[in-house]
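Hello Y.,

Per our agreement to keep a running log of every chain we model this quarter, I'm adding this entry. I've kept the format consistent with earlier entries: sequence first, then predicted structure.
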Amino acid sequence: MRTRFAVIFFCVLISSQFVYSQGVFTFCKNVDDNVYPVEPVSEISAGETVYFHFSNEIAVGIEGGNNITVGWVIHSVGEDGTDSGFINEYFTYFEPGNRRFCTTEPFCFPAPGIYRVYAINWDDRQLNYHPGNFTKYYAKNEITVK
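Predicted structure for the entry above:
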């Protein structure tokens, strides 16, 4: 019985780790009905809005299982290239078994700078203290705001 539990635990651990850092994060002007990014951008003007989108080769969650919660965590990027300031975080619920995810509303970056956005499992967010520089995430990307 212990051996079976250990094997199942190990398989779940490996499969949950495999999904992390495998995704492709895209900032885009819109998302189509099939959850593909429309008009990808890497640079925008302050005050413009963009959607956050990421896709994985492997589905996230188990089809038919409980909903998954994707967190979107936004940090400014410092001169040294690390996350220097927490900006915001929010989450979106999704049915499990999907490979493409996006925000339901666009996000506005009001000030010029470089920003890094992470798509994470909401349970992996940093509580009360937000140093950023996540090592466990589905996908991440940077955007320049002029």
